[in-house]
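Hi R.,

Here are the chain sequences for the assembly we discussed:
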Amino acid sequence: MATTSFRVIRGSATGEPKGEPTDAAIAESLRRGERQAELEAWNRFSPGAAQTLRRLMGPGPDREDLLQEVFLRFYRRIRTLREPGAVRGFLAGICIRVVQGEIASRSRRRWLHLTSTGDAPDTAVPGPDVEARDTIARYYALLGRLGQSERSIFVARTIEMLTLAEVAEAHGISISTAQRRLGRASKRIAALVRSDPALMRLAGGDES
Amino acid sequence: MNRPNDDADARILSALSDEARRQAAADAADLPRPGAWHRLEQRRAQPHRRSLRWWAAGLGLVAASAAVVFGLHNWRSGRALTFDVGGGAIVESGYIRGAANAGAPVQFSDGTRIELAAGARMSVVAPGPHGARLRVEEGTAHFSVMHLPHAAWSVEAGPYVVEVTGTVFDVRWSSADEVVEVRLQSGSVRVSGPLLTEHATLRPGQHLTAHLATRELRIDENVGTAIAPTLSVPPPATTPPEKTVSPDATAPPEMLAPAPTSFAASPPTEAPLPAATRPPGPARVVRKPARAVASIGSRAKADWAPQRWSARVSEGDAKGVVAEAVAHGIDTAVADADGPALVALADAARYAGRTYLAERVLRAQRTRFPGTAAAGAAAFFLGRLADDRGAAADGLGWYRRYLTEEPQGAYAAEALGREMIGVARLSGRPAARALAREYLHRFPDGTYLLHARAILQSP
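And here is the predicted structure of the full complex:
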């Protein structure tokens, strides 16, 4: 079974040798305003954060601007972190909020017809496995038909694999509210997926 | 149409989500891209500017009204402190330069006050809601920091950082003499930087002086009252005897009794008695030669101290040293060799072209002796090795780490130059401009001078 977002970030292969400071120690240093810790935090956390952003956003070009935004907020807000050991969860929450903002911004661009898709006009990423990629792009397009909050909750739970409690905390809602919205979103997405033969093929379901 | 059950839905969504995760992992495997840290730093260096789109203009008035009504409290508690500068000082983007013949008062909105001595320069690097990161660029500054909940102030002076809560103290930094002084009047501060293994917590009345050029650091009991505007550095030889240092002095133990083992070719010139038995007399003095590594002897498990490895490497017998380490067992050698032998083994491995072994030994150097100059140097060599094997992005990370840990280190010019070129190569010359400017400022006669100029002159 895949791991949760937090575990994914923890498991990111940053090549840190044993004996390097712990996550909590880095967070403590950041809270004390030690500049050296900023680079340490970047080296330790940025690969995981980049993956989290990619999972939350879906296929598309590399969005380094979003990663920058995540770390700008992270450095600005690190003093509000109550438990240094929870720094990765703290960072995941920031990723979620940055992506929520980006999705909202994309919706505004689409509404304003600045671009046809609402995406910023960047170069698409070419890659192998074109059919599967195209299908997953369609999957994310379906997710885009959810409301902003429901999309974020659904992606955080099913793709980012946060626990329900983590999802609720990241979105500032109660667990029961998160569960209710997640259930609603899941039903809607499942219905949409069932009407898309390509998605059903990829999911290994019966497309008939 | 049959109504699909929840389990089937869950399986479908799970399969699609798994595939989405797999693709994301593949796409983001190489992220962040090389040079991303530098681009982030560039963005942070730019003044924070929130671009307003036309559609937001209509909402601006409403938002402003709401901010006035609802946001006053947040503004007061969450926004960065502000400051005013008097005395005709010049202020630009947080950089404060006092007049040559008069001091300049800097008053922060939380009540903290700083008096810059005549000719002193200071930067307010990062103001926050509960404090600020300040840098004494040159000269003397007297600080009266308000003791408030969550206060977070730090003062950088050269390579030293003074962490503050609520305190009155003086800081002096002379870049020309490479001397830093911290004199504490009340409260407490924590000083970290070169020559200090961990950090030194000063008590009221204590006075820390570090002469980087001579690798000398002393902590004296106060010889008089605060002398903010006229702090002077007494020559070490003429410093009068000070009061006894109490046994419970809060400075690290190695400052009281330098460890007998050191990376230095020669032992410390002074080896004071342990604090508990020290008689009244001169203040604590720590002298460290240029290649000294703070307290490495006290940290190292010197189970094995191979003889003459350093000399043999100097004589060109790198392969012989590597062979001896292999014969001993690499795992054991890396784990047990004392500090000087580990450095020699890393050098030998590099010279012998055993890059994998060299990396392993250098990483051990960092793991076993963290915070030492040897660990810093290891970061630089790890960067070079990464560069050599084509992992330029890894190299950049190590160079930056070295420059952060050893900003005045022996390889600082080389590390900065290599970092500048690496960033230019990976991310384009515009991304390397800040580094080029820094290089020209710090090393105007450096070997990467032409590269730096070319980067700055390119469009």
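The longest helix of chain B spans residues 6-27. DSSP finds 16 helices and 16 strands in chain B.

Let me know if anything looks off.

Best,
T.
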